[in-house]
């Protein structure tokens, strides 16, 4: 079984819809968990007024019975409260940094509204709901994923390495999902200042998956490489402009002796491990059993309340870019979306390795593999 999914829906359309296929039969779906992930995405200091209007909740339309999956495609619906798509007026001043201009030229459009409705990151709510299902599947195998913000608008968090234990509580306390609460306060202040100037901010987030077994992904074909699949998924989040795995760009400036992770063997646990994790849990396109760590750089939001120069697409006269209701900074939400897309990609690689039409079959395959690893 392969996992694949599609999303549909416009920012101010009636609803967002997604279909995910390849989730095995017999998985108990906790819809509360899906809604909690949707809430997590909506939060974060710097979000705009739209998030005060919406109250995202997932409705499962197919693929389940009595709370468990049937092995058939699962369709998920998230209704939009603000669904004025037919009433909204035309836009003719493209915003730099958005799909607006390239979109109208590509689709032979005269109204930018017809571009931005789908280009909007509202679509990512569907991905978070879909990712929550993948997360539930992975949870059955002890795999957990979380994200945290490491920089916003030039303010950087202290401490590079993430320890999974006890971090969730700290992240809940931070309005920007940053475990360094002092930096978190400074980040909020920077967001306030940017907002007052009519400006926006970007930043950096890290997403970590723990409990991933050795052996997901493969070097045998370019598109089977796990790092490539994960990087693509994170890069597909609107506004993300850079992705690194493990120590990424820093590794390029260090000698090999300081980059590659020395191999250890724990006789008691009968397990290989690493002294460090600069590889970010992936070597040769294969998970190596360490935490999977990716970092992503997000550009500042493209809609500015003090707009940049633009050109009216009809008159060709110089004008100011359109101003839409917008967020000021969404780095914490982008991290939550990255958790979701990572969950989907890891679930894809997981189902490819362990197969099975039902959860019990998948568990048998997984347990047999883990047992064999211990015998080596
Ligand atoms: C959760 C989230 C919310 C966003 N909200 C806005 C917004 O309110 N206004 C805006 O102009 N861009 C917003 N963006 C960013 C744009 O979607 C993004 O800059 C735009 O699609 C162009 O980015 P791209 O070149 O990476 O596609 C948001 C992105 C995310 C991930």
Please provide a brief summary of the model:
This protein is α+β, with helices and mostly antiparallel strands and 376 residues long. The protein has helices at residues 31-42, 50-53, 100-106, 113-119, 124-139, 167-173, 181-197, 226-235, 248-251, 256-259, 331-354, 359-375; strands spanning 4-8, 15-21, 58-60, 64-65, 68-69, 74-79, 144-152, 155-156, 203-210, 240-245, 263-266, 271-274, 282-283, 286-287, 292-298, 309-311, 318-320.
Structural summary, described in words:
The protein has 376 residues and is α+β, with helices and mostly antiparallel strands. Strand 1 and strand 2 (15-21) form a beta hairpin. The protein has a single domain, classed as Chorismate synthase AroC (Chorismate synthase, AroC fold), CATH 3.60.150. The protein is 34% helix and 20% strand. It has a 5-stranded antiparallel β-sheet. A 4-stranded antiparallel β-sheet has the order 1-2-6-3. The chain contains 12 helices and 17 strands. Helix 1 (31-42) packs across helix 5 (124-139) and helix 8 packs antiparallel against helix 11. Bound molecules: flavin mononucleotide. Residues 48, 97-99, 119, 121, 124, 237-239, 301-303, 326-327, 330, 333-334, 337 line the site of flavin mononucleotide.
